[in-house]
Each structure stands twice: as C-alpha cells, then as structure tokens.
Amino acid sequence: MMMPEVIIHNSISIDGSLTNFEPNMTLHYRIASSYKPGVHLVGSNTVKTGIELYEDGVPSEEEKDFEKPERDKSLPYWVIPDTRGKLKGLLHTCRRFEYCKDVIVLVSETTPTEYIKHLEIRNYDYHMVGKKNIDLEKALKLLSSEYKVKKVLTDTGRILGNLLIKQGFASELSLLIHPVIVGKKSYNIFSDINENISLKLWKQRTLPQGHLWLVYSIKNISRHKRIPTLTES
User: Fold this and answer.
1) Cα separation of 217 and 200, whole Å?
2) DSSP annotation of 231
3) 3-state SS, residue 151
C-alpha cells in the first residue's frame, strides 16, 4: 500500500525554539498552503493550546456544528490524534475554520466511550488505530486508502513531529526561521531526537522582515528502529 508523503513544517526562532515568541502566522500559513496537502496532521495538545491562546473564549456549539461542513473538496482535512478525549467540547472551533474541509479524529481501543459517542452524535469521522496509543503507520495507511490522501503536512509541536522523523515517515522538513533569539526559555524543536539525522538542503528563500525559509529532504531512519505508537503527553 502506498504511504502518503509526509512534510513537517514549523515556525521557529533562530535558536530552534517552537514557543515563547510571536510567529508570523501569515507567512507560516502561506507556506503551508503552498504545499496543497490533503491532510493537516495536528496534535491534540497543539489544538488545545492554540484555542486557549488565540480564541476569545470557546464559543458555544450551535446546531450547524453537528453537521459536516460543505466546502471545496480541494481543502485539506484536519486529522487529530486524540485518544483521551482532550478536545471534547472544542472540536467545533476547528470544524468552523473556513480553510478546513472537516475534522477526522484518530482514537484507540482505550479511548473513553463517552468521547466516541460525542464524536458520533456530531458526525465526525473517527478511526481506531491502536490499542492504547496511535499507531502512526496504520494511521497513514488508512488516510491513503480511505481518503486517497497523497500528501500530509504537519505543523504541530515537537512530540508528533519528532516521532514522524524518528519512525522514518517524514520525507521533508520546512522551517520558517524568525529573526529572534529565545535563549533560556527555548522549547527546542528537535530535543526528542537522540541520533544524528542527515538532511539535504534543496530550497532557501529570504522573506520579508528578516525571515528565512529553509527546506530540507530527510534521510529516513530504517523502519526496524521505529517506535510503534504515538504517546500523547
């Protein structure tokens, strides 16, 4: 079975931090959309943090939030691993995003039954792809077979991105480097990587206001070293 291409795209400080600075979201999403992915793969922690940071309170659900949105088929799905139901009562904020086709939730055999019912009542697609945690290989194969996805882009935090690299699924790394040093408060993008990984630079562009866009191809790690599941923290 064909596996989709997986691209990791992140905005970072010049010293490699994912947080504690204000990213240029216009540039970030302009680059992300240029890839024309079939799926945005987003961690549940990233979604929850984003809602807390950028939303002016969580709006109440409305009747329309229980229905699948009708949007351009060329838009990407948002695929969110959420085995513990962290996003119960929050998913409608993602579904309302006009550049998202709809939300697909990845769950496991240990996901709370009440969360599964919550998803079913609201007509979210969900898929059980693991016993306790998410099996990334199974999830990617499912997206290819069930949704005909050829390209997956993730601009999520460190945990998911590092796992995709370590397990050998990511083929490209896109970094939007911001002209700021975070220093001691740095939350390093690659701190969960425990071995050297070879990269090949094939694109570099200087962008407005001192930003730099670097794109690397990733030399995949052999599959026998991969970790079988995604553990959410």
Assistant:
1) 5
2) P
3) strand
Collect all residues with Cβ–Cβ distance below 8 Å to 162 and sequence separation of at least 6: 190, 191, 192, 193
The reply to whether 190 falls in a domain is yes
Ordered per-residue pLDDT tens for the chain, 233 residues: 678 999 999 999 999 999 999 999 899 989 998 999 999 999 888 888 878 765 567 888 999 999 999 999 899 999 999 999 999 999 999 999 888 999 999 999 999 999 999 999 999 999 999 999 999 999 999 999 999 999 999 987 788 899 999 999 999 999 999 999 999 999 999 999 988 999 999 999 999 999 999 999 997 655 434 444 444 54
Domain of residue 183 covers 6-37+156-233
**Domain end among 150, 183, 206:** 150
For residues 82 and 102, membership in a common domain is answered with: yes
Q: Which CATH number is 60's domain given?
A: 3.40.50
State the CB neighbour count (10 A cutoff) for residue 227: 11
170-178 and 211-218 strand pairing:
antiparallel
Are 103 and 78 found together in one domain? yes
Query: Cβ distance 17 to 187 under 8 Å?
Result: yes
End-to-end CA distance of the chain: 30
